[in-house]
Amino acid sequence: MDRIYERSFDLNEWFIIISLIALLLLIWITPKIFSFLEGLSYYIYGISIGMFYDHTISIPPWDFYDVNDSSAYQGIDFISYIMYGPYSYFFIYIYKKLKIRGIMNLAYLLIWTAFSLLMEWFTLKIGIFHFDKGYEMYWSIPIYMAVQSIQLLFHHKINRSA
Amino acid sequence: MSLPFFISILIILSYIVIFMRKKLSFISNSIQFMVLSIISTNYITIMTNNLEWIKASEDVTQFISLLINRECILPLVGIVMVNGYLNFGNRTYRFLLFVCLLFFISVLDILHIHFKTLEYPQWSLLNTIIMNGIYLLICILIGLGLYYLQKKEERDSGQNL
């Protein structure tokens, strides 16, 4: 039986659509520092990782939380995963712009983890996530740190293979 | 019981992918892998949670084997399919590769049924084989698109995104 939180098209849906458009525009207007395929790979990384976690721990047998208006998988859920793409793109974009090296990698990772947690808290408040089933935000800390570390390794592997 | 099978298959397949001759670059193969994992994830979720034509086991160990299949084995098969397709110039070899991989991923589905990881209350194995065939065709299409973009980038050496 699907759990329904609300049925209206309100703040959570508007946030997803507006932020997706705004972030895509930001990608469009910022100076290009990646080739098309490299930029695309960073973008898709965010989508696939977000989808992997949500379609793993928010469905049975774990079923720790729900996304958007209902526990069922909806079209707006899919769009919300596309919204993750620009974040993973800018994660590497800023990393490359700032020329992060050495121990500063850790500082960069921690800043982005804090930012991700802030975004998660905000999306929780506007109804994109529902942690009524017992999920706690602190579980997201190692998840963010792990996926961001893997993305940094992915970026360096791409640089080496280029 | 299903988990050791799927872990072993994953390791074997990883070796095949690592050491096979690949015409797609690391970036293109990565994009192919991630897009295919998105497709297979959506397919399984929609079939099991929304349509409920397929029932996934709620046993954690069996569910992990389904995850390995969904997130790793199927995308890796897609990489083998498209790189093999690009490597073989001959249509017969391409068709043989398609049939072999279709047989392979369909056997994995039979294993899922055997181990009761998946049940088909409103679905059939024939439907699964058809969907697997469509999946492999999608793999080829995405791979060809990426190969085209890769070649274009190599020619232009530009920065577009």
Kindly provide the radius of gyration of chain B, computed on alpha-carbon positions and rounded to a whole number of angstroms: 17 Å
* Fraction of helical residues of chain B: over 70%
Structural class of chain A: mainly alpha
Low-confidence stretches of chain A: none
Main sheet characteristics of chain B: 2 strands, antiparallel
Span from first to last CA of chain B? 46 Å
Tell me which protein chains meet in the greatest interface and how many residues each side has: A-B, 30 and 34 residues
So how many helices of chain B? 5
Order of adjacent strands in the largest pleated sheet of chain A: 1-2
Largest sheet of chain A: 2 strands, antiparallel
Helix-strand pattern of chain B: HHEHHEH
Number of domains of chain B: 1
Overall pLDDT of chain B: 95
Q: How many helices of chain A?
A: 5
Briefly note the structural class of the backbone of chain B.
Answer: mainly alpha
Low-confidence stretches of chain B are none
Q: What topology, given as strand order, has the largest sheet of chain B?
A: 1-2
Strand content of chain A: under 5%
Quantity of strands of chain A, as a count: 2
Strand content of chain B: under 5%
Task: Kindly give the count of domains of chain A.
Answer: 1
Give the structure's gist in a few sentences:
Chain A has 162 residues and is mostly helical. Chain A contains five helices and two strands; from the N terminus they run H-H-E-H-H-E-H. Chain A has one domain.
